[in-house]
Amino acid sequence: ALYRNELLKRAQDGDAEAQYDLGCAYSNGEGCEQDSAEAVKWWQMAAKQRNADAQHALGCAYDLGEGVEQDYAEAVKWWRLAADQGNIWAQHSLGDAYYLGEGVEQNSVEADKWWQMAAEQGD
Known about the structure:
elongated; mainly alpha
């Protein structure tokens, strides 16, 4: 509880990393009641501060429709922001989106480009 209180205080004070971590806690129900909408709320705060992990997580929430209405185009928007910062998971997710044609025009060349970037980082 002490860790969660400290995390909440830091998140409320605008710490993007704490906001991301708090979103993950709500997403997974770690130390709190599982709440996808609450997770999205904290990820949005961190994502707007250019936290790439939060941007990727937010993209996944939109992709799956967890805590928000499913919206592939919105998922791609957040993944692209994170991928452009070098986030390996967002690069992989963006590749998947292009391969499947979800939120973007299907494009296997573009899919390969993003997957290659992720692979070069060890994915």
